[in-house]
Amino acid sequence: MENVIITGATGMIGSHVAKILIDNGINVTAIIRPMSEKIGNLKDAHDISEQDGKGRLQLVECSIDELPSLRDKLGWEHDTFFHFAWGHTYGPGKYDASKQEANIKATIDAVHLAYESGCKTFVGCGSHDEFGIISGKLSDELPKDPISGYGIAKLAANRLSALECRNLGMRHCWGRVLSCYGPGDNDKTMVMTAVKTMLRGDKMQFTPAEQIWDYLYVEDCAKAFIAIAEKGIDQKSYIIGSGEQRLLREYIYAIRDAIDPNLEVGIGERDYSPNQIMLLSADINELAADTGFVPETSFEDGIRKTIESVRQSLENQDELTSI
């Protein structure tokens, strides 16, 4: 890779992919939502790009429903396209057919933009929601029966973008993410909600937290996508996770202990949600065999980095409020 395009580049995963690539001398065209509130996630990438020997960062504002408008406007020739942009991943929109249909169209538009920009490889970002309600270690061989509009759309986007890449003579790979966490994470995730609540010294109510889960630190997740782009097999989908599993309550206690071991944690004070999955972990054997990817960050180390990032962000907000 020399010149890549990333949609959703201000998101948690996309921004970390950008930082790693730029740090390794690769030029990045970052397609971001106009007036993105998450532009700060690319600050480190911008700082890196200004250093000698590092790749360049080109910011292009464009909503995902207008990707065709970027034809012939992205500057230098590109070789690899990472598609992370996706609307309505939380809330009612996750189950809205029309909103999710727009995401499918945007993915096909991204394939055509990749082709028109000279890219030979297209890498898309999927989700465990593509499988539906399955308890166990996820591998691509398992049946897929998604129940949310989001999961249905991700699965359709995967298959249709793979078909279109084949028609256009492009290499296509897809990475299905289980549970990723780290700096820049969405406020609605369990990890980020817990971190912010506990940093305030407040008590958070949890389910019995007997689920067995798999969490992967975002920097490792970004490296997995880069490894897939470099070495993944054409037309193949990969499960991205740590390959390790723990009780959810163990993750919760690890967050608590890294902040304040004396904090009270309300385990068992909430009911499970309907259709709660009780076992979810990643079979990363094929990912490791094909690309050499190996997770490097333990949850304890990753959560410390995440907490420090959130703490600094909250302190900066307090400073602005006091001015």
Structural summary, described in words:
The protein is α/β, with parallel strands linked by helices. The protein is built from nine helices and 13 strands. It has helices at residues 12-23, 43-49, 97-116, 149-168, 190-199, 218-231, 248-259, 285-291, 299-322, and strands at 3-7, 27-32, 57-61, 80-83, 121-127, 136-138, 171-177, 179-181, 212-213, 215-217, 236-240, 246-247, 280-282. The strands form four sheets. It has a seven-stranded parallel beta sheet, sandwiched between helices. Strands 6-13 form a two-stranded parallel sheet. Strand 4, helix 3 (97-116) and strand 5 (121-127) form a beta-alpha-beta unit. Helix 1 crosses helix 6. The radius of gyration is 19 Å and the shape is globular. It starts with a strand and ends with a helix.
Strand order of the largest sheet: 3-2-1-4-5-7-11
Helix content: 25-40%
Q: Sheet bearing the most strands, described? A: 7 strands, parallel
Low-confidence stretches: 319-323
Strand segment count: 13
From the alpha carbons, calculate the radius of gyration and give it in angstroms.
19 Å
Class from helix and strand fractions: alpha/beta
User: Can you write the helix and strand succession as a string?
Assistant: EHEHEEHEEHEEHEEHEEHEHH
Apparent shape: globular
Q: How far apart lie the N and C ends? A: 45 Å
The overall pLDDT, averaged over residues, is 92
Instruction: Provide the β-strand percentage band.
Output: 15-25%
Count every helix, treating DSSP H or I runs of 4 or more residues as helices.
9
List keywords for this structure.
323 residues, alpha/beta, 7-stranded parallel β-sheet, two-stranded parallel sheet, 9 helices, 17% strand, globular, disordered C terminus
